[in-house]
Amino acid sequence: MMRFLLLFSRQGRLRLQKWFTPMTEREKKKIIRDMTTLVLARQPRSCNFIQWKDLKIIYKRYASLYFCLGVENQENELLALEVIHRYVELLDKYFGNVCELDIIFNFEKAYFILDEFLMGGEIQETSKQMVNRSIEASDMLQEDDSSEWYEVELFG
Amino acid sequence: MSDVVEKTLTALPSLLSLDSQPGSAKLSSNSKLGNLIRGITELTSKHEEEKLIQHELSSIKEQVSSPNTTMRQMRELMVRAVYCEMLGYEASFSYIHAIKLAQQGNVLEKRVGYLAVSLFLNENHELLLLLVNTVLKDLQSTNLIEVCMALTVVCQIFPKDMIPAILPIVEEKLNHPKEIIRRKAVLALHKFYLIAPNQVQHIHNKFRKALCDKDPGVMTASLHIYLQLIQENAEAYKDLTASFVTILKQVVGGKLPMDFNYHSVPAPWLQIQLLRILSLLGKNDQRTSEVMYEVLDESLRRAEMNHNITYAILYECVKCVYTIHPKSELLEKAATCIGNFVLSPKINLKYLGLKALTYVVQQDPKLALQHQMTIIECLDHSDVIIKRETLELLFRITNAQNVTVIVEKMLDFLRLSKDDHTTVDLAGKVAELAEKYAPDNEWFIQTMNAVFSLGGDMMQPEIPNGFLKLLSEGFDSEEEDRKLRLFAVNSYISLLQGDPSKLPQRFLQVICWVLGEYSYLKDDLDPVVVLRLLAQLLDMKGSSSDTKSWVLVAMTKLCWSETAVSVAQQVAETYSSSFDTTLRQRAQELQHLSRDSQLHSRVLPPGGSLEPVEVDSSLSFLDGFVSEALSAGAAPYKPLHQRQEELSRSKALSLEPYGLSLPISTSSCSITDRQSPTLLSTSSGLSGDSTDFSHRGSSTTLKLDGVRRVWGREGYLAQKEPVEEVAQVEIPSPLRSPGQQGDADSCHSRTPTANPEGDREKQQLASSLFGGLSSQSSVCLMEKSERFGRKAKGQRASSTPNEQRSDPSVSSSSAVDNLLCNNLLEENSEPIDSSTKQTFQHPQSLRVPNGACDAEAIISDDDTKGRNRPVSPEEHVEGDDFPPCEDKSKDLSLTAHLPAELSGFSHSEIIPLCSNRSLDLSACHVQTDNTVVLVVFVTNSSEDANLQIQVLSEELEVCCPCESPVEEVRGHSVSVRQYSLTVKRPLVHFELVGRLSYSAAGTLQSMQFSYKLPLTSFIRPLTVSTEEYGSMWLAFSHDTKQNLTLMKEEQEPLSATLNALKKKLSLHVVEIIGVEGLVACSLLQDQPCLMHCRVHAGRLAVWLRSPVADLPDCLLYHCQRALQEH
To answer: Which sequence ranges are marked TM in the entry (chain A) (predicted)?
Structure first.
């Protein structure tokens, strides 16, 4: 099972956090701090896996953004790496050539996509088409509501 | 694909220049969030950021609380609040508004509301309760998106106690026509299973339905639950093996829709999940394993090496092949795979290759040999993660030949490691290897020194404990022991002469103990020198008070000579007024023992071997105290977790639908929630055991039940590794120069890598690392390797140093405390620890009554004897010296006086209450079908008298059937009074006090007495049918649960136990169904109590329920007692 997913920039600024098991604020803060220092200190071209306490940390850098996934010990590291990659692909498909700014300015969208992809720390849907379809389905709901909503969504 | 992504993301920094770029309209740069983000990026200092955010937060706060804010604006505000929280600023004022938004908004707003809630709140937040209704409503919505959102949020965050409220609706969703809803529902149930397994027990068959769902996505989701279930109990799901194999075959064969492909690999997540399940099912089970060989073979064949995801599948396959019952063909293929991994230039694969090797090497050590050169390269890899993993692998292949090299490598790593977790782990491993394979004394001590200095104070306490135990217990040869100890002493003396302030506290404590015990072995060493060295530790700034205690104890052992005494006295004086009580006590001990050399030599015989410490882990010496407290109405002890559980139960709303809580179906999980063997504190053998207390006290065996056995006779009780058994060959290693006298200061031994570089060096390292692994020769070096893993001497399973760790004072055997204590108390009349004395003496006052018919009498006997002493001030009474034989005859003669209507029922032993020259009062109680009658016999051995008896009790209602309170008792006769008793409030024991006043020969006199009877006297069997039992169970609100000991009966331990209970407590066994038993009883007629028993893990899990408060608890106490006596 996955425990958490963190997205942070090269400067260690948090961009997205998802916790799959209940944790106190203090624990969260500590993990975020540990992860950023741990991952940012890694040399390029080193192994993408880190053993940290009783968890495995799998991280990958995409441009200036680090994706850092904490999984339980019996999980498959390579598969976790592909989880990260699939998430990036999903973001890319939704935003179209995704960049860090997309995620900064539309972070709630990034969360919605993540919620369709992972649920309760497990993979829910691996198909890109399916995830996008359900995201778009909820995005399009605005049309049924009123035209005003539609405008807000487009220009706001 | 990934290249494209990476390219676009690389272009990012230029975008960050924040000039509005064409096409970045979607970045909503005009929004308030956009402004905020941009504002923050422009700032240069943390302080400015703080100011800006605080300003932002106050403006958000103002807006959210304004009544004019629309839901649409609210949504925007929430996003901003979430952003601020992500930056680490608290926005708790917005939590309630997030909930409101989820409640009242339209779909889009709701989505943001739910998101904000799941980001803001954690599982225990009280506001979460407000969400329950919203979720409930949305789950029932006709809008699919709302249902999806509700299921998502349920998965993410939902109060555990509220699960029952939504469970039926989530269950319903398993039949929903839309597969996405079904899938989410399955995942939600998986989540429930993880956080509250007992809540979803009853829907296991629905999981099976989900597994058979026509949509592969739903089926995949259900595998998460199955993986979990099979992890917990593989046996129960063996029948599904064939189905899982079939599914995997279809997946591997590409039968799933294209949608499930990932980079043209069919459903890799599903494949890996199935492989994990199969490896759990096939573990240690040849028959089940055989079913899956074919599909595993196909998986290995199909996965072509070209993409990460296929490697992931291969890795899982390899793990599976090595986990299940072995098949040589598959093992060969898997080994080739591992080889490919290890040799791969990709670092991630190399890492996994090493991991796989580590996993496999226990079964197949030769595989490591094949890759030895790669492993050596990895040892010096630039990435610490790879290095660490290599050490892990080496740890598994360590044997007597290569131990020095491997330990050296590990210590090298430890010296550089900054991560606490790694340090603790690695230090433990080095210590383990040193125990097992140390080639000689010097090496062992030096290695342990290194472990102690590097491991520091984070190290697991077992390591120093085990080390001291090893030293103190010794091995087969006295001479060897002496050498080892002497070497340790030498080594520590020189460490202390160096700079001890750098040593960790744990290490100092070890040093103190060793010097205290064994410094006498060094002939040319004046104890005063040692004392001075130790005293210097006391003055060190960093010394913890724990360490100081160890120092003082060590000093106590050392003060022999005159000069030593003077040093000791000085120290003792300083610390005898310390605020730390432990320290103070040690100082006192030091003071007194150093003054009185005779006492000292008695308590601490010079060089004497340690007597094992007597530990009464059952604390039976407190039994008297406990029983007194209980009889005085104290509640029985409940273990911590039970109290917490009750507390949380009393706090939490009970939403449990009663229809579901039939004991038969749910008890298993709720009781197994706590499997720790829990007994009430009174369980230490209140009655039967205390008989032989004195006998036990004199026995010299050590009782350490409950102490974890880390060290056995063979040394450290680590899991046996097959490597040990591999035939070993001695390869001449340049490293071991036996007999070399090492110097104590350096714990670094010679490193092989000091040689000139080159392949030869690697070869050499390889030969030293992999020595003993090849199977060419069968020369066994067990004798050598066993030296440190040898047997401890004699039968002494004592863990003296273990005790030492927790409390240094105990080290010198309890006799010290005893002697010291008594000595001080008697001679100096200076009570140091009066409570100790009390507890020591207490057991003696526990006496065994003769001829008690009831276990209760054991407790009550003491009490009543105490109180029986008539307290009448008016008259001197020569009370209670009835010789026992007289008692017996009296008993017999009085029985004849039992009223006719009661003679058919069983009665308790007749016990004397009080007496004087003319009157004897005795009593017993009779259990009739629906009452308990107290019968008081008044034997008048002189003239006629008028007497009046009053009997009172706080917890019992006493009613006297005879009308006149005053009655005439004729001379030389026996008069009988009856009192019927009813329970007002259940208690473990009831106590009656009475007063007898009588006038004879014109004088008025009075006596007081008391009588005690157990709750069991009031318990009657309750005959009900199983159905009635079921409906009653649901209606009762007070309950308690506990695990009891099961009787050791070959067959049918359950029914034997229940029969014993039935006999002792007069219960009614309603039915025994498999491992569960239903028992019913009632308190007299109208207060039922039901008991549900279940055999679990060799214990009897008991759950009592009753409408009467306290009744379950009190009854449980008696059940426990009854089973102990048995």
So the answer is: none
